[in-house]
Amino acid sequence: xxxxxxxxxxxxxxxxxxxxxxxxxxxxxxxxxxxxxxxxxxxxxxxxxxxxxxxxxxxxxxxxxxxxxxxxxxxxxxxxxxxxxxxxxxxxxxxxxxx
Length: 99
What we know:
mainly alpha
């Protein structure tokens, strides 16, 4: 029997356009269930797709601090999240939840 070879899936390789990036973030926001580290990891995926060095420059952060903030291992400050979202060319918006 032939051995099956698998490779690790990296979502960043599939986020090519701003529309795909926004749709991915929107889906992650819906699935996060209040888990800020999950959202940080999703932003990290998008930042890797766009280029971490460029996102760090645009956000006014060092590349190292950006990596640390978006690993999904800790919850970055909201100010960092806002800087990264802006640097990625994305916007947050609010809608009323079902009452």
